[in-house]
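Spend some time on the protein that follows and explain the fold to me:
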Amino acid sequence: MELASERPVSQISVAELADRAGVTRATFYNRYSTRLDLLIHVLYADLNRGHRLEEEWAQRGYSAAELHRLTTAEVGDHVERFRAVYRLSLDDPADSGVYEALVRHFSDYALAFMARSNRSEFPDANRHLIAQFMANGFAGAIKAWLNDPSITKDDMVEAAVACAPAWWATGY
């Protein structure tokens, strides 16, 4: 993560990664296919930490509206923890896989959310398309936040919560 915070992952060699981690290149390739795979693995692990927090908050009895805001803010916290990585990936077309992975994560989450909620309030429409729409919108809001220093994390959270369909908050 240190290296990916200093320059785009596409400009980091596997030899450099292996050396920094104290492993061989063979060890790296036994676990990951590419440098981007490793980076996405680390980012997903942190995003999944947020999902565990979501489960804890739900067990504590937070309202659906509170859960929606808390989980959205947790994603904002994730982006802040890895701000340099995300900023560098947005500036380098060779690293578009980081943004695509973020969209994929949000889409997978949206599908799982709808499947476990299975509420009658959900629209009778293709859930894969709904998930893509939600994921690209949320990732787009994050991208706009990262590209504009005048936008704060709280601005992003407020906008994302405001743009979520009414049925989303009832699904918690």
In short: The two ends are 32 Å apart (CA to CA). The chain is about 75% helix and 0% strand. The mean pLDDT is 92. The chain has one domain: 37-169.
